[in-house]
Each structure stands twice: as C-alpha cells, then as structure tokens.
Design goal:
The chain has 281 residues and is of the alpha/beta class. It has two domains: 84 residues, Rossmann fold (3-Layer(aba) Sandwich); 124 residues, NAD(P)-binding Rossmann-like Domain (Rossmann fold). The protein is built from ten helices and eleven strands. Strands 1-11-8-7-5-6 form a six-stranded parallel β-sheet. α1 packs parallel to α10, α2 crosses α10 and α6 packs across α10. The longest helix has 21 residues. The chain starts with a strand and ends with a helix. Bound molecules: guanine. The site of guanine has 9 residues, from β4 and α6.
Length: 281
C-alpha cells in the first residue's frame, strides 16, 4: 500500500494550529512581501501567500513594482529592516534581469529573513545552529516525516541544487542522519543513482522527469515540481501515475509540497515575530 502524502491536509493542520497560537498574541505578526516585475506565476504565488497570511491572523504588506532599480530596492529593504512594525521580509524570486538577486537577499536583516535565504542563515543551517529554514525544504521534511519518523542511515537523493530547494533540503536530510547525494543537470546516470534512494526529492523543473524504473521499491518520493502542461493541467517532476505503486509514500501535484511551502512561510513569520518581540508562544 502506498501512502499518499497529502500536503493540502497537513498544511491545513499546520495553519489551524498556528492560527490558534496567533490569537493569543498581543498584536498580529506582520510580513512584508516584495514583488518586482510581471511574472504571472510569481503574482499568483504572492496573492496566495497574502491570502493565507490573512487567514491565520498574520498581517501582510505587499510592495509591488513593475520595475525598480537596484538602489531603490536596497533602500526599500533598509526601510523594512528598520521598521519596528515589520517582523518578516520576503522578496519573491526570481527577480527580473538587471537586479542583483544575491545583493538583495544579503541586504535583508537575517532575523527578518522568513525565507532562510540569507547567507548567514544558510551558514547556520550548515553548522547546525537554529535559523530560519527555507519554506519548501522545511515543508518537504514534514511530509517525509509523515511517512517515517527516523530517517537515520537512509540514502537520500536530492535532484536539483538551487538555494531555494536543493541545497537546504540536502542539509536538512543530512541533519536527519541520511546519506545524502545531490544530483543536478551534469550528474551522470541519474536513473541509476535514483534507484539507490530510500528518499527521493525531485526539484528538476521538468514535467514527469522521474520515471517508474528510477524508483527503488518502497522509496519515499517528494515531488517539488509544479509544471503546467499544454492542456492547462498541473503536473510534477515525477511521473506520478506510473511511480505510485513502487513507492511507500509519494506526494501528489497539486496538493503536495505547494501548500506546505505556504504553511511553512506562515510558521517562519510567526517565529520571526517571536525573535523580534521576545514574545514566545
Ligand atoms: N520563488 C519560488 N519559491 C520561492 C520561495 O520559497 N520564496 C521566495 N521568496 N521566492 C520564491
């Protein structure tokens, strides 16, 4: 029997318990979201984040710009860093060409970095210090734990080496005592490598890349991909229908990792509020 890792349901539970805790706070946590450019997918993600925040009692302020210069964006971030009413800051990625993304991410106060993309926070993750953890990998780990609590000694393969998903995901799995391999576009014999995985995390960005014969029987498979097919339907990086029976647990797309990313953003914002105000809950 394969366990369907229902991220929609788990995210709903995380959000409900967060909403209960937020009710007890003296003021609402506040998240600043910065969206630059006209990428339609980013606009949808930001709308979803704004709506989800409101539903758990987090206030959000969205700063939308069709275009902005590097200097103007840096000065907005400096203002948000200094603003005592703002607990968390998120700059939606990707930023348009002409903006130096790394410089922008480094300008965010690490204590307000709800994405966990600041180098200081990524470094803390690497050395095992508490730090905000990137939302998608954090959500993926919660989903993996739905299938299995103790991951010690398992072989994990992460396909994709982005700062948003692959790199922090590998660190989190390492912290769980997995033997972790990071695969990417230059990896040789990817199907063979994937067949060694007890845990397989696919963050490739190409529909149905992971085939049934890449899966070790009983593997836990986490699909980070959100791809739109020509027929308008969403699908993941894993060939879900054909892989399903071989896995012990697998996430669907949609309703898998996506809702968890948003739930973890809300958690990270509440944690940023606690860091900022010294109020614990
Ligand atoms: N773009 C795609 N995923 C993310 C994310 O988790 N955070 C931000 N800021 N941008 C993204």
């Amino acid at each position: 029997m394969t366990l369907l890792l229902n991220g929609f349901e788990l995210a709903g539970q995380c959000r409900a318990s967060l909403a209960e805790k937020i009710k007890t706070l003296p003021r609402a946590p506040k998240l600043a979201v910065v969206l630059v450019g006209s990428d339609p997918a980013s606009a949808v993600y930001v709308k979803n984040k704004e709506k989800a925040a409101g539903e758990v009692g987090i206030e959000s302020a969205v700063y939308r710009f069709e275009t902005i210069t590097q200097t103007e964006l840096l000065s907005l971030i400096a203002r948000l860093n200094a603003d005592n009413e703002i607990d968390g800051i998120l700059v939606q990625l990707p930023l348009p060409d002409g903006i130096n993304e790394k410089e922008i991410l480094q300008a965010i106060d690490p204590a307000k970095d709800v994405d966990g993309f600041h180098p200081l926070n990524l470094g803390k993750l690497m050395i095992g210090e508490p730090a905000p953890i990137a939302c998608t990998p954090k959500g993926c780990l919660k989903l993996i734990h739905q299938a299995k609590q103790d991951l010690s000694g398992l072989n994990a393969v992460v396909i994709g080496r982005s700062v948003i998903v692959g790199k922090p995901m590998a660190q989190l799995l390492l912290k769980e005592n997995c033997t972790v391999t990071m695969a990417h576009s230059k990896t040789q014999n990817l199907p063979e490598l994937c067949r060694s995985a007890d845990i397989l995390v696919a963050a490739v960005g190409k529909p149905k890349t992971v085939k049934a014969d890449w899966i070790k029987k009983g593997a836990i498979v986490i699909d980070v991909g959100i791809n739109r097919l020509e027929n308008g339907k969403l699908c993941g990086d894993v060939d879900f229908e054909n892989c399903f029976d071989k896995c012990s647990a697998i996430t669907p797309v949609p309703r898998g990792v996506g809702p968890m990313t948003i739930a973890m953003l809300l958690e990270n914002t509440a944690e940023a509020f606690c860091r900022h105000t010294g109020i614990d809950f």
